Amino acid sequence: MSEAVRKRLGADERREEIIRVTLELAARQGVDDVTTQDMAQAMGVTQGAVFRHFPSKDAIWMAVMLWVRDRMMAVLTRAAAQGRDPLDSLQRMFFAHIAFIAGHPAIPRVLTSEHLHGRNAVLRQVVTEIMLAYEAKIAHLLRDGQVQKQVRLDLDTQAAATLYIGMIQGLVLQTSILRGQRTLAAEAARTLPVFLAAVCTPSPTQGTHP
Amino acid sequence: MSEAVRKRLGADERREEIIRVTLELAARQGVDDVTTQDMAQAMGVTQGAVFRHFPSKDAIWMAVMLWVRDRMMAVLTRAAAQGRDPLDSLQRMFFAHIAFIAGHPAIPRVLTSEHLHGRNAVLRQVVTEIMLAYEAKIAHLLRDGQVQKQVRLDLDTQAAATLYIGMIQGLVLQTSILRGQRTLAAEAARTLPVFLAAVCTPSPTQGTHP
DNA sequence: CCCTAGATAGTTATTGATCACTATCTTATG
DNA sequence: CATAAGATAGTGATCAATAACTATCTAGGG
Questions:
Q1: Are B173 and A159 a contacting pair at CB < 8 A?
Q2: CATH number, domain at B145?
Q3: Which of A64, B5, B88, B158 could be stapled to B83 by a disulfide with Cβ–Cβ 3.0 to 4.6 Å?
Protein backbone atom coordinates (compact mmCIF):
# COMPACT_ATOMS: atom_id res chain seq x y z
CA MET A 1 0.00 0.00 0.00
CA SER A 2 2.91 2.38 -0.57
CA GLU A 3 1.11 3.57 -3.71
CA ALA A 4 -1.63 5.52 -1.99
CA VAL A 5 0.80 8.06 -0.51
CA ARG A 6 2.65 8.90 -3.70
CA LYS A 7 1.01 11.49 -5.90
CA ARG A 8 1.72 13.91 -8.68
CA LEU A 9 3.22 11.60 -11.25
CA GLY A 10 4.34 12.76 -14.66
CA ALA A 11 1.73 12.58 -17.37
CA ASP A 12 3.31 9.55 -19.05
CA GLU A 13 3.69 7.62 -15.82
CA ARG A 14 0.11 8.46 -14.83
CA ARG A 15 -1.19 7.27 -18.19
CA GLU A 16 0.72 4.03 -17.73
CA GLU A 17 -0.69 3.57 -14.25
CA ILE A 18 -4.25 4.21 -15.43
CA ILE A 19 -3.81 1.43 -17.98
CA ARG A 20 -2.35 -0.81 -15.30
CA VAL A 21 -5.09 -0.33 -12.70
CA THR A 22 -7.76 -0.55 -15.38
CA LEU A 23 -6.56 -4.03 -16.36
CA GLU A 24 -6.26 -4.91 -12.69
CA LEU A 25 -9.79 -3.79 -11.88
CA ALA A 26 -11.20 -5.43 -15.00
CA ALA A 27 -9.73 -8.74 -13.85
CA ARG A 28 -11.28 -8.46 -10.43
CA GLN A 29 -14.71 -6.99 -11.06
CA GLY A 30 -15.35 -7.36 -14.79
CA VAL A 31 -14.69 -5.07 -17.73
CA ASP A 32 -17.98 -3.19 -17.76
CA ASP A 33 -18.09 -2.64 -14.01
CA VAL A 34 -14.90 -0.58 -13.94
CA THR A 35 -15.78 3.06 -13.30
CA THR A 36 -13.50 6.05 -13.54
CA GLN A 37 -14.12 6.44 -9.81
CA ASP A 38 -12.70 2.94 -9.26
CA MET A 39 -9.63 3.77 -11.28
CA ALA A 40 -9.03 6.98 -9.36
CA GLN A 41 -9.50 5.27 -6.02
CA ALA A 42 -7.06 2.51 -6.97
CA MET A 43 -4.44 5.13 -7.70
CA GLY A 44 -5.18 7.36 -4.71
CA VAL A 45 -6.38 10.36 -6.71
CA THR A 46 -9.79 11.85 -7.36
CA GLN A 47 -12.05 10.93 -10.24
CA GLY A 48 -11.62 14.19 -12.09
CA ALA A 49 -7.87 13.67 -12.29
CA VAL A 50 -8.40 10.71 -14.61
CA PHE A 51 -9.82 13.00 -17.27
CA ARG A 52 -6.74 15.17 -17.27
CA HIS A 53 -4.89 12.30 -18.93
CA PHE A 54 -7.59 10.85 -21.17
CA PRO A 55 -10.32 12.74 -23.01
CA SER A 56 -12.89 9.99 -22.44
CA LYS A 57 -13.33 6.57 -20.92
CA ASP A 58 -13.33 4.97 -24.35
CA ALA A 59 -9.91 6.51 -24.91
CA ILE A 60 -8.71 4.65 -21.82
CA TRP A 61 -9.98 1.35 -23.18
CA MET A 62 -8.36 2.10 -26.49
CA ALA A 63 -5.03 2.67 -24.75
CA VAL A 64 -5.51 -0.58 -22.83
CA MET A 65 -6.16 -2.48 -26.04
CA LEU A 66 -3.12 -1.05 -27.78
CA TRP A 67 -1.06 -1.94 -24.71
CA VAL A 68 -2.38 -5.49 -24.85
CA ARG A 69 -1.76 -5.76 -28.57
CA ASP A 70 1.84 -4.61 -28.33
CA ARG A 71 2.78 -6.69 -25.28
CA MET A 72 0.96 -9.75 -26.54
CA MET A 73 2.51 -9.74 -29.97
CA ALA A 74 5.95 -9.14 -28.51
CA VAL A 75 5.61 -12.09 -26.16
CA LEU A 76 4.29 -14.40 -28.88
CA THR A 77 6.90 -13.39 -31.42
CA ARG A 78 9.73 -13.88 -28.95
CA ALA A 79 8.41 -17.30 -27.91
CA ALA A 80 8.00 -18.45 -31.49
CA ALA A 81 11.51 -17.34 -32.38
CA GLN A 82 12.99 -19.65 -29.77
CA GLY A 83 11.46 -22.76 -31.31
CA ARG A 84 13.71 -25.01 -33.33
CA ASP A 85 10.93 -26.15 -35.68
CA PRO A 86 7.36 -25.01 -36.49
CA LEU A 87 5.63 -27.37 -34.10
CA ASP A 88 8.02 -26.48 -31.31
CA SER A 89 7.34 -22.81 -31.96
CA LEU A 90 3.62 -23.48 -31.83
CA GLN A 91 3.93 -25.10 -28.43
CA ARG A 92 6.13 -22.31 -27.10
CA MET A 93 3.67 -19.71 -28.33
CA PHE A 94 0.85 -21.57 -26.68
CA PHE A 95 2.45 -21.76 -23.27
CA ALA A 96 3.76 -18.21 -23.54
CA HIS A 97 0.23 -17.06 -24.28
CA ILE A 98 -1.18 -19.05 -21.35
CA ALA A 99 1.46 -17.65 -19.01
CA PHE A 100 0.80 -14.12 -20.22
CA ILE A 101 -2.93 -14.51 -19.66
CA ALA A 102 -2.32 -16.02 -16.24
CA GLY A 103 -0.33 -12.91 -15.36
CA HIS A 104 -2.98 -10.58 -16.78
CA PRO A 105 -6.33 -12.33 -16.38
CA ALA A 106 -8.29 -9.38 -17.73
CA ILE A 107 -6.83 -9.65 -21.21
CA PRO A 108 -9.19 -12.23 -22.69
CA ARG A 109 -12.10 -10.43 -21.06
CA VAL A 110 -11.12 -7.14 -22.61
CA LEU A 111 -10.66 -8.67 -26.04
CA THR A 112 -14.00 -10.49 -25.98
CA SER A 113 -16.02 -7.83 -24.19
CA GLU A 114 -19.07 -7.04 -26.25
CA HIS A 115 -19.52 -4.01 -24.05
CA LEU A 116 -16.44 -2.51 -25.68
CA HIS A 117 -16.35 -3.66 -29.29
CA GLY A 118 -20.15 -3.68 -29.50
CA ARG A 119 -20.44 0.08 -29.28
CA ASN A 120 -17.17 1.63 -30.37
CA ALA A 121 -16.25 0.75 -33.95
CA VAL A 122 -12.61 1.75 -33.56
CA LEU A 123 -12.15 -0.51 -30.57
CA ARG A 124 -13.60 -3.43 -32.49
CA GLN A 125 -11.21 -2.71 -35.32
CA VAL A 126 -8.25 -3.19 -32.98
CA VAL A 127 -9.67 -6.46 -31.67
CA THR A 128 -10.24 -7.67 -35.22
CA GLU A 129 -6.66 -6.84 -36.13
CA ILE A 130 -5.30 -8.73 -33.15
CA MET A 131 -7.42 -11.78 -33.85
CA LEU A 132 -6.60 -11.93 -37.54
CA ALA A 133 -2.89 -11.39 -36.94
CA TYR A 134 -2.84 -14.14 -34.36
CA GLU A 135 -4.77 -16.57 -36.52
CA ALA A 136 -2.50 -15.85 -39.46
CA LYS A 137 0.53 -16.51 -37.27
CA ILE A 138 -0.82 -19.93 -36.30
CA ALA A 139 -1.87 -20.88 -39.82
CA HIS A 140 1.57 -19.86 -41.09
CA LEU A 141 3.35 -22.04 -38.53
CA LEU A 142 1.13 -24.96 -39.46
CA ARG A 143 1.89 -24.55 -43.16
CA ASP A 144 5.59 -24.44 -42.31
CA GLY A 145 5.03 -27.62 -40.36
CA GLN A 146 3.49 -29.22 -43.43
CA VAL A 147 6.58 -28.35 -45.45
CA GLN A 148 8.76 -30.02 -42.83
CA LYS A 149 6.43 -33.05 -42.72
CA GLN A 150 5.57 -32.46 -39.07
CA VAL A 151 1.99 -31.57 -39.91
CA ARG A 152 -0.51 -33.63 -41.93
CA LEU A 153 -0.60 -32.40 -45.50
CA ASP A 154 -4.38 -32.76 -45.70
CA LEU A 155 -4.90 -30.49 -42.68
CA ASP A 156 -7.11 -27.44 -43.13
CA THR A 157 -4.67 -25.02 -41.52
CA GLN A 158 -7.20 -22.22 -41.37
CA ALA A 159 -9.71 -24.38 -39.51
CA ALA A 160 -6.94 -25.67 -37.26
CA ALA A 161 -6.00 -22.09 -36.37
CA THR A 162 -9.62 -21.46 -35.44
CA LEU A 163 -9.55 -24.55 -33.25
CA TYR A 164 -6.29 -23.39 -31.65
CA ILE A 165 -7.73 -20.01 -30.69
CA GLY A 166 -10.90 -21.71 -29.51
CA MET A 167 -8.81 -23.99 -27.32
CA ILE A 168 -7.39 -20.97 -25.49
CA GLN A 169 -10.83 -19.39 -25.29
CA GLY A 170 -12.29 -22.55 -23.84
CA LEU A 171 -9.50 -22.91 -21.30
CA VAL A 172 -9.93 -19.34 -20.15
CA LEU A 173 -13.70 -19.68 -19.96
CA GLN A 174 -13.61 -22.84 -17.92
CA THR A 175 -11.00 -21.69 -15.46
CA SER A 176 -12.84 -18.39 -15.03
CA ILE A 177 -16.23 -19.98 -14.43
CA LEU A 178 -14.98 -22.96 -12.46
CA ARG A 179 -12.53 -20.71 -10.69
CA GLY A 180 -10.41 -22.37 -8.07
CA GLN A 181 -11.26 -25.88 -9.12
CA ARG A 182 -8.98 -25.81 -12.14
CA THR A 183 -5.82 -23.88 -12.88
CA LEU A 184 -5.20 -22.47 -16.31
CA ALA A 185 -1.68 -23.79 -16.74
CA ALA A 186 -2.54 -27.33 -15.66
CA GLU A 187 -5.57 -27.59 -17.95
CA ALA A 188 -3.57 -26.08 -20.79
CA ALA A 189 -0.85 -28.70 -20.46
CA ARG A 190 -3.50 -31.42 -20.66
CA THR A 191 -5.36 -29.96 -23.62
CA LEU A 192 -2.52 -29.07 -25.97
CA PRO A 193 -1.58 -32.71 -26.72
CA VAL A 194 -5.13 -33.35 -27.89
CA PHE A 195 -4.84 -30.47 -30.32
CA LEU A 196 -1.44 -31.63 -31.51
CA ALA A 197 -2.86 -35.07 -32.23
CA ALA A 198 -5.21 -33.39 -34.67
CA VAL A 199 -2.46 -31.73 -36.67
CA CYS A 200 0.53 -34.05 -36.40
CA THR A 201 1.39 -36.57 -39.06
CA PRO A 202 0.34 -40.00 -37.79
CA SER A 203 3.57 -41.63 -36.65
CA PRO A 204 4.55 -44.65 -34.51
CA THR A 205 6.17 -42.37 -31.91
CA GLN A 206 4.24 -39.34 -30.69
CA GLY A 207 5.77 -36.28 -32.29
CA THR A 208 5.10 -33.91 -29.44
CA HIS A 209 8.48 -34.15 -27.75
CA PRO A 210 11.04 -35.36 -30.28
CA MET B 1 -43.92 -4.95 -36.48
CA SER B 2 -47.39 -6.27 -35.72
CA GLU B 3 -46.22 -6.79 -32.15
CA ALA B 4 -46.52 -3.20 -31.08
CA VAL B 5 -50.30 -3.14 -31.50
CA ARG B 6 -51.07 -6.21 -29.41
CA LYS B 7 -51.34 -5.52 -25.72
CA ARG B 8 -52.68 -6.84 -22.48
CA LEU B 9 -51.34 -10.37 -22.61
CA GLY B 10 -51.85 -12.92 -19.86
CA ALA B 11 -49.14 -13.03 -17.22
CA ASP B 12 -47.60 -16.26 -18.52
CA GLU B 13 -47.52 -15.08 -22.12
CA ARG B 14 -46.03 -11.76 -21.05
CA ARG B 15 -43.31 -13.51 -19.07
CA GLU B 16 -42.49 -15.61 -22.11
CA GLU B 17 -42.34 -12.56 -24.32
CA ILE B 18 -40.08 -10.72 -21.91
CA ILE B 19 -37.66 -13.65 -22.07
CA ARG B 20 -37.93 -13.67 -25.85
CA VAL B 21 -37.27 -9.96 -26.41
CA THR B 22 -34.51 -9.99 -23.81
CA LEU B 23 -32.62 -12.63 -25.78
CA GLU B 24 -33.38 -10.75 -28.97
CA LEU B 25 -32.07 -7.46 -27.62
CA ALA B 26 -29.04 -9.11 -26.07
CA ALA B 27 -28.10 -10.50 -29.46
CA ARG B 28 -28.36 -7.12 -31.11
CA GLN B 29 -26.90 -4.73 -28.56
CA GLY B 30 -25.04 -6.87 -26.04
CA VAL B 31 -26.10 -8.44 -22.76
CA ASP B 32 -25.20 -5.60 -20.44
CA ASP B 33 -26.69 -2.89 -22.61
CA VAL B 34 -30.21 -4.28 -22.41
CA THR B 35 -32.32 -2.01 -20.21
CA THR B 36 -35.80 -2.66 -18.92
CA GLN B 37 -36.81 0.35 -21.00
CA ASP B 38 -35.57 -1.44 -24.11
CA MET B 39 -37.54 -4.54 -23.22
CA ALA B 40 -40.73 -2.57 -22.68
CA GLN B 41 -40.30 -0.65 -25.91
CA ALA B 42 -39.73 -3.86 -27.86
CA MET B 43 -43.03 -5.17 -26.55
CA GLY B 44 -45.00 -1.96 -26.90
CA VAL B 45 -45.62 -1.42 -23.20
CA THR B 46 -44.21 0.98 -20.65
CA GLN B 47 -41.16 0.27 -18.57
CA GLY B 48 -43.04 -0.07 -15.31
CA ALA B 49 -45.13 -2.89 -16.75
CA VAL B 50 -42.06 -5.11 -16.91
CA PHE B 51 -41.81 -5.11 -13.13
CA ARG B 52 -45.34 -6.39 -12.76
CA HIS B 53 -44.09 -9.72 -14.11
CA PHE B 54 -40.61 -9.93 -12.62
CA PRO B 55 -39.53 -8.68 -9.19
CA SER B 56 -36.12 -7.54 -10.47
CA LYS B 57 -33.97 -7.44 -13.57
CA ASP B 58 -31.79 -10.23 -12.21
CA ALA B 59 -34.92 -12.35 -12.01
CA ILE B 60 -35.41 -11.77 -15.73
CA TRP B 61 -31.87 -12.94 -16.47
CA MET B 62 -32.41 -15.94 -14.26
CA ALA B 63 -35.53 -16.84 -16.22
CA VAL B 64 -33.59 -16.39 -19.45
CA MET B 65 -30.84 -18.70 -18.25
CA LEU B 66 -33.26 -21.38 -17.16
CA TRP B 67 -35.00 -21.08 -20.52
CA VAL B 68 -31.65 -21.50 -22.27
CA ARG B 69 -30.68 -24.44 -20.07
CA ASP B 70 -33.91 -26.32 -20.69
CA ARG B 71 -34.09 -25.70 -24.44
CA MET B 72 -30.39 -26.32 -24.94
CA MET B 73 -30.30 -29.60 -23.09
CA ALA B 74 -33.46 -30.79 -24.85
CA VAL B 75 -31.97 -30.04 -28.26
CA LEU B 76 -28.65 -31.69 -27.44
CA THR B 77 -30.21 -34.77 -25.90
CA ARG B 78 -32.54 -35.25 -28.85
CA ALA B 79 -29.70 -34.86 -31.35
CA ALA B 80 -27.48 -37.30 -29.50
CA ALA B 81 -30.26 -39.87 -29.32
CA GLN B 82 -30.54 -39.96 -33.09
CA GLY B 83 -26.91 -40.99 -33.54
CA ARG B 84 -26.21 -44.63 -34.37
CA ASP B 85 -22.83 -44.65 -32.58
CA PRO B 86 -21.00 -42.37 -30.12
CA LEU B 87 -19.04 -40.46 -32.73
CA ASP B 88 -22.14 -39.95 -34.85
CA SER B 89 -23.96 -38.65 -31.79
CA LEU B 90 -21.10 -36.27 -31.09
CA GLN B 91 -21.31 -34.82 -34.57
CA ARG B 92 -25.09 -34.49 -34.41
CA MET B 93 -24.83 -32.75 -31.06
CA PHE B 94 -22.25 -30.40 -32.47
CA PHE B 95 -24.29 -29.31 -35.45
CA ALA B 96 -27.48 -29.18 -33.40
CA HIS B 97 -25.68 -26.86 -30.99
CA ILE B 98 -24.36 -24.70 -33.81
CA ALA B 99 -27.81 -24.46 -35.39
CA PHE B 100 -29.37 -23.59 -32.05
CA ILE B 101 -26.83 -20.84 -31.46
CA ALA B 102 -27.30 -19.55 -34.98
CA GLY B 103 -31.01 -19.23 -34.24
CA HIS B 104 -30.39 -17.58 -30.89
CA PRO B 105 -27.12 -15.66 -31.17
CA ALA B 106 -27.40 -14.20 -27.68
CA ILE B 107 -27.04 -17.55 -25.95
CA PRO B 108 -23.25 -17.80 -25.83
CA ARG B 109 -23.09 -14.16 -24.80
CA VAL B 110 -25.49 -14.71 -21.95
CA LEU B 111 -23.65 -17.78 -20.72
CA THR B 112 -20.22 -16.12 -20.83
CA SER B 113 -21.29 -12.67 -19.66
CA GLU B 114 -19.15 -11.67 -16.72
CA HIS B 115 -21.64 -8.88 -16.13
CA LEU B 116 -24.15 -11.53 -15.08
CA HIS B 117 -22.24 -14.31 -13.34
CA GLY B 118 -19.71 -11.85 -11.94
CA ARG B 119 -22.17 -10.25 -9.60
CA ASN B 120 -25.00 -12.68 -8.93
CA ALA B 121 -23.85 -15.93 -7.35
CA VAL B 122 -27.05 -17.80 -8.21
CA LEU B 123 -26.78 -16.93 -11.88
CA ARG B 124 -23.21 -18.17 -11.94
CA GLN B 125 -24.34 -21.39 -10.33
CA VAL B 126 -26.71 -22.04 -13.24
CA VAL B 127 -23.97 -21.34 -15.78
CA THR B 128 -21.61 -23.67 -13.95
CA GLU B 129 -24.23 -26.40 -13.96
CA ILE B 130 -24.81 -26.03 -17.70
CA MET B 131 -21.09 -26.08 -18.48
CA LEU B 132 -20.33 -29.09 -16.31
CA ALA B 133 -23.32 -31.02 -17.61
CA TYR B 134 -22.33 -30.33 -21.18
CA GLU B 135 -18.71 -31.26 -20.63
CA ALA B 136 -19.73 -34.46 -18.89
CA LYS B 137 -21.99 -35.32 -21.83
CA ILE B 138 -19.10 -34.95 -24.27
CA ALA B 139 -16.63 -36.85 -22.13
CA HIS B 140 -19.17 -39.66 -21.72
CA LEU B 141 -19.70 -39.93 -25.47
CA LEU B 142 -15.95 -40.05 -26.00
CA ARG B 143 -15.54 -42.84 -23.45
CA ASP B 144 -18.32 -44.76 -25.18
CA GLY B 145 -16.42 -44.21 -28.40
CA GLN B 146 -13.34 -45.72 -26.82
CA VAL B 147 -15.30 -48.83 -25.89
CA GLN B 148 -16.45 -49.17 -29.47
CA LYS B 149 -12.90 -48.55 -30.76
CA GLN B 150 -13.92 -45.40 -32.61
CA VAL B 151 -11.90 -43.22 -30.27
CA ARG B 152 -8.20 -43.53 -29.41
CA LEU B 153 -7.82 -45.42 -26.15
CA ASP B 154 -5.02 -43.10 -24.99
CA LEU B 155 -7.19 -40.00 -25.42
CA ASP B 156 -7.63 -37.73 -22.40
CA THR B 157 -11.41 -37.51 -22.73
CA GLN B 158 -11.67 -34.74 -20.18
CA ALA B 159 -9.18 -32.58 -22.04
CA ALA B 160 -10.87 -33.43 -25.32
CA ALA B 161 -14.19 -32.25 -23.92
CA THR B 162 -12.54 -28.98 -22.96
CA LEU B 163 -11.23 -28.65 -26.49
CA TYR B 164 -14.69 -29.42 -27.89
CA ILE B 165 -16.33 -26.67 -25.89
CA GLY B 166 -13.48 -24.33 -26.77
CA MET B 167 -14.03 -25.12 -30.43
CA ILE B 168 -17.60 -23.86 -30.19
CA GLN B 169 -16.46 -20.85 -28.17
CA GLY B 170 -13.85 -19.99 -30.75
CA LEU B 171 -16.28 -20.36 -33.63
CA VAL B 172 -18.78 -18.09 -31.96
CA LEU B 173 -16.12 -15.55 -31.08
CA GLN B 174 -14.71 -15.35 -34.56
CA THR B 175 -18.01 -15.13 -36.35
CA SER B 176 -19.18 -12.47 -33.91
CA ILE B 177 -16.06 -10.33 -34.24
CA LEU B 178 -15.52 -10.93 -37.95
CA ARG B 179 -19.24 -10.64 -38.51
CA GLY B 180 -20.30 -10.90 -42.08
CA GLN B 181 -17.02 -12.27 -43.33
CA ARG B 182 -17.63 -15.74 -41.95
CA THR B 183 -20.78 -17.68 -41.22
CA LEU B 184 -21.03 -19.85 -38.16
CA ALA B 185 -22.32 -22.98 -39.90
CA ALA B 186 -19.70 -22.91 -42.65
CA GLU B 187 -16.79 -22.43 -40.25
CA ALA B 188 -18.20 -25.12 -38.00
CA ALA B 189 -18.31 -27.65 -40.81
CA ARG B 190 -14.65 -26.92 -41.57
CA THR B 191 -13.47 -27.10 -37.98
CA LEU B 192 -15.18 -30.23 -36.71
CA PRO B 193 -13.09 -32.61 -38.89
CA VAL B 194 -9.94 -31.19 -37.33
CA PHE B 195 -11.28 -31.97 -33.88
CA LEU B 196 -12.36 -35.45 -34.95
CA ALA B 197 -8.86 -36.13 -36.22
CA ALA B 198 -7.64 -35.57 -32.69
CA VAL B 199 -9.93 -38.16 -31.13
CA CYS B 200 -10.41 -40.78 -33.81
CA THR B 201 -8.40 -43.97 -33.94
CA PRO B 202 -5.81 -43.60 -36.70
CA SER B 203 -7.20 -45.59 -39.61
CA PRO B 204 -6.53 -45.87 -43.36
CA THR B 205 -9.99 -44.47 -44.18
CA GLN B 206 -11.13 -41.33 -42.40
CA GLY B 207 -13.68 -42.33 -39.79
CA THR B 208 -15.77 -39.18 -39.92
CA HIS B 209 -18.43 -40.48 -42.30
CA PRO B 210 -18.43 -44.26 -42.15
C1' DC C 1 20.57 32.04 -4.00
C1' DC C 2 16.03 33.53 -4.00
C1' DC C 3 11.97 34.87 -5.92
C1' DT C 4 8.61 34.92 -9.27
C1' DA C 5 5.86 33.37 -13.45
C1' DG C 6 4.19 29.87 -16.18
C1' DA C 7 3.10 25.20 -16.70
C1' DT C 8 1.36 21.01 -15.01
C1' DA C 9 -1.14 17.70 -11.82
C1' DG C 10 -4.79 17.20 -8.85
C1' DT C 11 -9.17 18.77 -6.09
C1' DT C 12 -13.83 20.16 -5.38
C1' DA C 13 -18.22 20.54 -6.75
C1' DT C 14 -21.60 20.04 -10.02
C1' DT C 15 -24.20 18.73 -14.14
C1' DG C 16 -27.10 16.08 -17.10
C1' DA C 17 -28.12 11.62 -18.40
C1' DT C 18 -29.41 6.98 -17.48
C1' DC C 19 -30.96 3.30 -14.84
C1' DA C 20 -33.60 -0.02 -11.77
C1' DC C 21 -37.34 0.18 -9.19
C1' DT C 22 -41.97 1.89 -7.00
C1' DA C 23 -46.40 4.08 -5.60
C1' DT C 24 -50.62 5.41 -7.29
C1' DC C 25 -54.01 5.84 -10.68
C1' DT C 26 -56.61 3.86 -14.96
C1' DT C 27 -58.73 0.67 -17.92
C1' DA C 28 -59.68 -3.57 -20.19
C1' DT C 29 -61.75 -8.06 -19.83
C1' DG C 30 -64.09 -12.03 -18.09
C1' DC D 1 -68.17 -5.29 -10.80
C1' DA D 2 -63.77 -7.25 -9.54
C1' DT D 3 -59.38 -8.22 -10.70
C1' DA D 4 -55.33 -8.26 -13.10
C1' DA D 5 -52.49 -5.62 -16.68
C1' DG D 6 -50.83 -1.52 -17.84
C1' DA D 7 -50.08 3.77 -17.60
C1' DT D 8 -48.23 7.76 -15.30
C1' DA D 9 -45.07 9.91 -12.83
C1' DG D 10 -42.05 9.81 -10.08
C1' DT D 11 -37.45 8.38 -6.53
C1' DG D 12 -32.70 7.82 -5.41
C1' DA D 13 -28.46 6.10 -7.02
C1' DT D 14 -24.76 5.96 -10.20
C1' DC D 15 -21.81 7.52 -13.70
C1' DA D 16 -19.04 10.14 -17.23
C1' DA D 17 -17.72 14.51 -18.07
C1' DT D 18 -16.65 19.54 -17.01
C1' DA D 19 -15.51 23.94 -14.96
C1' DA D 20 -13.32 26.58 -11.66
C1' DC D 21 -9.97 26.46 -8.23
C1' DT D 22 -5.48 24.97 -5.79
C1' DA D 23 -1.09 22.77 -4.98
C1' DT D 24 3.34 21.59 -6.80
C1' DC D 25 7.09 21.70 -9.85
C1' DT D 26 10.49 24.05 -12.95
C1' DA D 27 13.01 27.65 -15.33
C1' DG D 28 15.06 32.13 -15.62
C1' DG D 29 16.26 36.94 -14.12
C1' DG D 30 17.96 39.72 -10.61
A1: no
A2: 1.10.357.10
A3: B88
Q: pLDDT truncated to tens, each residue of chain A (210 aa)? A: 334 456 788 889 999 999 999 999 999 999 999 999 999 999 999 999 999 999 999 999 999 999 999 999 999 999 999 999 999 999 999 999 999 999 999 999 999 998 998 889 999 999 999 999 999 999 999 999 999 999 999 999 999 999 999 999 999 998 988 877 789 999 999 999 999 999 998 864 443 433
CA of A53 to C1' of D14 (A): 23
Q: Which bases of strand D sit closer than 7 A to a protein CB? A: 4-10, 14-20, 24-25
CB B93 within 8 A of CB B79: yes
* Spacing of A38 CA from C10 C1' in Å: 16
d(CA B14, CA B53): 7
Q: Is residue B205 part of a domain?
A: no
Q: Do A195 and B163 touch (CB under 8 A)?
A: yes
Burial class (CB within 10 angstroms; exposed 0-12, middle 13-18, buried 19+) of A197: buried
Assess whether B6 (CB) lies less than 7 A from strand D.
Answer: no
B133 close contact with A: CB closer than 8 A:
no
Co-location of B130 and B170 in the same domain? yes
Same domain, residue pair B77 and B35: no
Q: Answer whether residue B126 is part of any domain.
A: yes
Per the DSSP assignment, residues forming a β-bridge with A200 are A151
Q: What is the torsion angle, in degrees rounded to the nearest 10, for the CA atoms of residue B164, residue B158, residue A175 and residue B60? A: 60
Rounded to two decimals, the ipTM of the complex is 0.90
B149 and B177 in a single domain? The answer is yes
